[in-house]
Design goal:
The complex is a heterodimer. Chain A is an alpha+beta fold. Chain A contains eight helices and twelve strands. Chain A folds into three domains: 151 residues, 2-Layer Sandwich (Beta-Lactamase); 85 residues, Helix Hairpins (Orthogonal Bundle), CATH 1.10.287; 146 residues, Histidine kinase-like ATPase, C-terminal domain (Heat Shock Protein 90, 2-Layer Sandwich), CATH 3.30.565. In chain A, the strands form three sheets. In chain A, strands 2-1-5-4-3 form a five-stranded antiparallel beta sheet, covered by helices on one side. In chain A, a hairpin with a 5-residue loop joins β4 and β5. The longest helix of chain A has 66 residues. By secondary structure, chain B is α/β, with parallel strands linked by helices. Chain B has two domains: 118 residues, Response regulator (Rossmann fold), CATH 3.40.50.2300; 95 residues, Winged helix-like DNA-binding domain superfamily/Winged helix DNA-binding domain (Arc Repressor Mutant, subunit A). Helices cover 41% and strands 22% of the residues of chain B. Chain B is built from eight helices and twelve strands. The two termini of chain B are 32 Å apart. In chain B, 43% of the residues are buried. The chains are: A alpha+beta, B alpha/beta. The interface between A and B is large, with 54 and 42 residues.
């Protein structure tokens, strides 16, 4: 199943980290806030009740000693806030003394003292709420020694102010924590992402011939440095292997070509010196075979070296138009002999830095194929188009096309497509050679069947 | 031509000595690079054929040393390495031509011929000239035999020119590919054959007595007096 990228996977990693940290910090602050608020509010409520009970006891004592006048003297003097109110009523609820701040008058104080066993429980607390108001009033009541009742009320105004302040400080602390939580993101992008980007940049040069480019990250974290050195060690090994392969190829070429040259020389002598037509024919045929064998050796070596990135290129600035035009000139008589039309479709001329001879060889191979597999009366078209700074070269025919299942396989060594009938000798190295040449240029190859019939082989080449 | 061959493979050396003798060249065969340097500096000759892989000095070093000593002798490299970078290296070392093993005797002879022409500052061909019964006009690439006139394509003309330059000699296919199309590999399809056939038809249609013979297993030969 193809891996489907979710939205999250498409976000750059430092943003992902930042997002996770923000989520973490946000959740922490929210939890802390909820916890602190509920605890503090309960504590403040207790405190409020204790203050009310204490004040009730205190004013009851003042009343016992100095009567209403005493209370009237002490209460306003002791009032440091507008959150406390005091009343003295008769058992029927008539007010004997009342000192209520403005806000407290809006609350409906209990009319009569509540029924209570005042002997066992000398103070009683009640909650008074008022519609449309958040503030709550807690009213305490006690029976005075003369049968009157003392009421002491206190709103939670002050508690609310404390809570509000605590919330603000907590938020400030949270924002500060969030700022500190950004430090890992900064660290991550500086110490991890920057080296990884440097890796990517240097890795782009790894495919270049000789492959001496290495992963560089002088300021990376130790783990990344280890990764780089492990990869670099691998690359060193690949380089030494490809150099070894190059050496082996050269040696093999020499070992094979020299004996082939000796045989060839002798066959030429045979052809020259023999008067027997059959011997001459055999010698001529053998000469052709020797040349084919020499070319085969060369192809195998080129493919091997190309597959391992060990093919030495001799790059030159080459006009795509000139290159293809020359090939069309070369192949036209042969195509006409086969009843085929060979045309070049003009495009904007491009100049690529390529090994002219190898690319020539690659396109020749594709043309050779097209000539072999296109039935008489067909048409072979050469065209090209710019792609990025490079180009894609197409060889299109009106032949039988390529079976979809074989589109990958035909590029493999020794494979011939089944739709391809064996009209000429050889062992199907042509397309592998094309691919090896394209790959050694950092390019690629492919084939598609055209809607109008026939195959379209393409070679993609970078600028160079 | 007086030639010197530096080749350590005895079989190839023997074959080439025979070929060159047959072709009327005088060939001195040496097997070592050092010996070759001494010989070349003390003898006069027209061209050197030098194997790259020699047991003592490699061919590149020999040519570089020669050039440093001011010896302008034309040099053809023989090598088992076919890559363009190798060829470029050889030419950069100061060689004049480069031949990959295995090669045809005719190929070597044709190249020697080309070298000699170059050394003789290639006699410039006249604008219009008569060959056999045909009048050749290189500017218009036209061949006329009396009233019959035939126009050639640029490559056809170059092909004819190369074949004419080596008149009476067999010119291998690979040599033609290189001289006419600047291609150093076999493009597979019988491209050269097809082009030769077309040129031959054109010559016949003009009634020219110039002809190109195909020699199986060897190449093509130009003749101007065929019937």
């Amino acid at each position: 199943m193809p891996f489907k990228k979710t939205l999250f996977d498409r976000i750059p990693s430092q943003w992902r980290l930042a997002l996770l940290l923000a989520l973490f910090v946000g959740t922490s602050i929210a939890l802390t806030l909820a916890l602190v608020r509920s605890t503090v509010s309960r504590d403040l409520q207790h405190l409020n009740s204790r203050i009310i009970v204490d004040d009730l006891v205190e004013y009851a004592a003042i009343y016992a000693a100095n009567g209403i006048e005493g209370v009237a003297d002490v209460f306003p003097a002791g009032q440091h806030s507008d959150t406390n109110g005091l009343r003295i009523t008769t058992p029927t609820g008539e007010a004997r003394y009342e000192d209520l701040p403005k806000e407290m008058r809006d609350f409906s104080w209990p009319q009569r003292p509540p029924a209570n066993d005042w002997e066992s429980k000398p103070t009683l607390l009640q909650e008074v709420v008022k519609e449309g108001k958040d503030t709550r009033l807690t009213v305490g009541c006690t029976r005075l020694h003369d049968g009157n009742y003392l009421w002491f009320g206190r709103t939670d105004e002050e508690s609310r102010r404390y809570q509000h302040n605590i919330t603000i400080y907590l938020w400030l602390a949270g924002i500060l924590a969030a700022a500190v939580a950004l430090l890992p993101v900064v660290w991550y992008s500086h110490e991890v992402l920057t080296p990884i980007r440097a890796f990517t940049k240097s890795a782009r040069h790894l495919h270049l011939p000789e492959g001496t480019a290495r992963l560089m990250a002088p300021r990376a974290i130790p783990e990344l440095k280890t990764l780089a050195s492990v990869i670099n060690a691998g690359l060193d090994q690949i380089l030494s292997l490809s150099r070894e392969l190059q050496g082996t190829n050269d040696q093999l070429a020499h070992e094979l070509r020299t004996p082939l040259a000796r045989i060839r020389g002798n066959l030429e002598n045979l052809l020259d010196k023999s008067d027997n037509p059959e011997a001459q024919d055999a010698a001529a045929r053998s000469l052709e075979e020797i040349d084919r064998a020499a070319q085969l050796v060369q192809h195998i070596l080129t493919i091997r070296a190309g597959d391992h990135g060990a093919l030495r290129l001799y790059k030159q600035q080459t006009s795509v138009h000139d290159l293809l035009y020359n090939l069309v000139e070369l192949f036209t008589p042969a195509a006409e002999d086969r009843g085929l039309t060979l045309v070049i479709k003009q495009g904007l001329d491009l100049v690529l830095n390529i090994d002219r001879e190898l690319i020539n060889q690659a396109i020749s191979n594709l043309l050779d194929n097209a000539l072999a597999y296109t039935p008489r009366g067909g048409r072979i078209t050469l065209r090209w188009q710019a792609e990025g700074t490079g180009a894609v070269l197409f060889v299109e025919d009106t032949g039988p096309g390529v079976h979809p299942e074989e589109m990958e396989m035909i590029w493999e060594r020794y494979n011939r497509g089944s739709s391809i009938f064996t009209r000429h000798p050889g062992i199907g190295l042509g397309l592998s050679l094309v691919r090896a040449i394209a790959m050694s240029h950092g390019g690629s190859v492919g084939v598609m069947n055209r809607v109008t019939g026939g195959a379209s082989f393409w070679v993609r080449l970078p600028q160079g | 031509m007086r030639l010197v061959l530096v080749e350590d493979d005895p079989e190839l050396g023997r074959q080439m000595t025979a070929w060159m003798a047959e072709a009327g060249h005088h060939l001195t065969w040496l097997e070592q690079g050092e010996a070759a340097l001494d010989w070349i500096c003390n003898h006069s000759c027209d061209a050197a054929i030098l194997d790259v892989g020699l047991p003592d000095l490699d061919g590149f070093t020999v040519v570089e040393t020669l050039r440093k000593r001011g010896v302008q002798l034309p040099v053809i490299f023989l090598t088992a390495r076919a890559g363009v970078p190798d060829r470029v290296r050889g030419l950069a070392a100061g060689a004049d031509d480069y031949l990959t093993k295995p090669f045809a005797a005719e190929e070597l002879l044709a190249r020697l011929d080309a070298l000699r022409r170059r050394a003789a500052q290639a006699q410039s061909l006249p604008d219009r000239r008569r060959v056999g019964n045909s009048l050749l006009d290189p500017v218009r690439r036209r061949i006329s035999c009396g009233p019959e006139v035939v126009d050639l394509q640029p490559r056809e003309w170059t092909l004819l020119e190369v074949l004419m330059k080596h008149e009476g000699r067999i010119v291998p296919k690979q040599f033609l590919l290189e001289q006419v199309w600047d291609i150093r590999f076999d493009p597979g399809t019988n491209v050269v054959d097809a082009m030769i056939c077309r040129l031959r038809r054109k010559l016949e249609s003009a009634g020219s007595n110039l002809s190109i013979e195909t020699i199986r297993g060897k190449g093509y030969a130009f003749q101007k007096d065929a019937v």
